[in-house]
Amino acid sequence: xxxxxxxxxxxxxxxxxxxxxxxxxxxxxxxxxxxxxxxxxxxxxxxxxxxxxxxxxxxxxxxxxxxxxxxxxxxxxxxxxxxxxxxxxxxxxxxxxxxxxxxxxxxxxxxxxxxxxxxxxxxxxxxxxxxxxxxxxxxxxxxxxxxxxxxxxxxxxx
Length: 158
Hints:
The protein contains six helices and seven strands.
């Protein structure tokens, strides 16, 4: 569940744990764009729109950046749920333990997944040519320590 109550006062109204999630991936000219989109869809639901931005790579080669972004709580729950369900338990526990290293000073959680594994239907962490997820954690006050606690709570029942 992506609702949290900050503080111990149970009468306070619950707040969203995530403000927004953005997921992006590069589709290189040598790759099948529909397969790269399918890899992105491994964690992003079908009803979330994906923007397509043609760009030139470092050596002038054509590339497409596919990006999905949402602020809707139901969609952010779906994305986090997909990660919890599809990422191997050992990697999920490792990710949970390493959350402080995945958080920016602005309370943005950054996770990277192996695009090639995702294209084959498997979610794995990866750094080489990854699918990149950025989740803006709703931390009040906006401190890494607060965001760490909230993010660990998101992955607690994994």
